[in-house]
Design a protein that fits this description.
Elements lengths: L14 H11 L14 E5 L3 E7 L2 E3 L2 E4 L5 E5 L2 E7 L1 H22 L5 H13 L7 E9 L2 E7 L5 E3 L2 E4 L3 H11 L6 H18 L6 E8 L3 E10 L29 H9 L1
C-alpha cells in the first residue's frame, strides 16, 4: 500500500480535531495544565544586541518568585533570555554553557552564536517540546550582532527583533512600532524597556522588575539587574512593630508544663 496516497495534499486536516471532540463526548477529561508567564525581548542595534526580561516567576495564578533571573550567561559574548518553565530554562542553558566552555578550551576561539543555536536545537528537538524552554539567543561574534528565537521544539529563526512569553502579545506591538535599522544603543534600551513594561502592565503572568543586557564587540557586556523596579516593598527598620496588650483577644489559655511534671500528674 502506498502510504503517500493517504497523506493530505493541501488544506487543513481536521481529523485530530474530530477525534478530540468525539473523545470529549465519550467522557474523556483533559489533564490539568499550568500556565506560566514571562516577557522576554531581543533586538539588534547598530553596534550590538540587547536582551530584556521581566523577573516574575509564576505557577498558574500564584507568584512564586518576584525577582527571578531570566537572562542566562552562555559565553563571554553570548546571553540567552528564557521563557517557559524556569527550571528547564536554567538547566538547559547551564548544560549548553558548559559544553561551550569545553569547546573554547579545545579550539581557543570565541564562541559563535550559531554554535549556541545548534546545541540548543539538538537538545530541545529530541524532547519534542516536552522541555519547556523557549529561548532568545543573542550575541556578537566574528559575523557581527546575531539574534535567534528558539522554540521549545527546537525550531529557530534569525530575526532583527523578537519577543517570547505570554507578555509578547503586548511587547510585539511596541517593537513593531519603534524598531528601525541602525538604532543607537540608547534607543534600543528605551525600546526594550518599554516593551517589557508593556508585558508587565498587560500580562498577569509578567511583572516585578526589568532586567536587560547589552552585548557589543570586544567583550563589552553591560548587564543591568533590576534596571526598573515596580511596587517595591519598603521595610521599616527604624521602628519595630509594637502591638499593645489586648490588640488580639484571648479566647483560651493553655498551661505549658514540662514532661516530668506531666508524668508526675499521671502517676498521682
Amino acid at each position: 500500500m502506498d502510504y503517500l496516497s493517504e497523506v493530505p495534499r493541501d488544506g487543513f486536516n481536521a481529523e485530530l480535531q474530530s477525534r478530540n471532540e468525539h473523545l470529549l463526548k465519550l467522557g474523556l477529561k483533559p489533564g490539568p495544565y499550568t500556565k506560566t508567564g514571562t516577557t522576554i525581548v531581543g533586538a539588534i542595534y547598530d553596534k550590538g544586541v540587547i536582551l530584556g526580561a521581566d523577573t516574575r516567576a509564576t505557577s498558574g495564578e500564584t507568584v512564586l518568585e518576584k525577582n527571578c533571573r531570566k537572562l542566562h550567561w552562555m559565553a563571554p559574548n553570548i546571553y540567552c533570555a528564557g521563557a517557559g518553565t524556569a527550571a528547564d530554562c536554567e538547566h538547559v542553558t547551564l548544560q549548553t554553557a558548559s559544553q561551550l566552555h569545553l569547546l573554547r578550551l579545545h579550539t581557543h576561539t570565541e564562541t559563535r552564536v550559531v554554535t549556541v543555536v545548534a546545541l540548543l536545537n539538538e537538545l530541545l528537538f529530541k524532547y519534542g517540546g516536552n522541555v519547556g524552554a523557549h529561548l532568545i539567543a543573542a550575541g556578537v561574534d566574528v559575523t557581527g550582532p546575531q539574534l535567534f528565537m528558539i522554540g521549545a521544539d527546537g525550531n529557530y529563526r534569525h530575526l532583527p527583533y523578537t519577543s517570547m512569553g505570554s507578555g509578547s502579545v503586548a511587547a510585539i506591538p511596541v517593537l513593531d512600532a519603534t524598531y528601525r535599522d541602525g538604532m543607537t544603543r540608547d534607543e534600543a534600551i528605551a525600546m526594550v524597556v518599554q516593551a517589557i513594561e508593556a508585558g508587565i502592565k498587560f500580562d498577569n503572568g509578567s511583572g516585578s522588575n526589568v532586567d536587560y543586557v547589552t552585548i557589543e564587540a570586544g567583550g563589552k557586556v553591560d548587564y543591568q539587574r533590576n534596571f526598573r523596579m515596580y511596587n517595591r516593598k519598603v521595610y521599616e527598620t527604624t521602628q519595630p512593630y509594637v502591638f499593645p496588650a489586648g490588640t488580639t483577644p484571648i479566647i483560651k489559655k493553655y498551661e505549658i508544663v514540662s514532661h516530668t511534671e506531666a508524668m508526675q500528674v499521671e502517676e498521682a
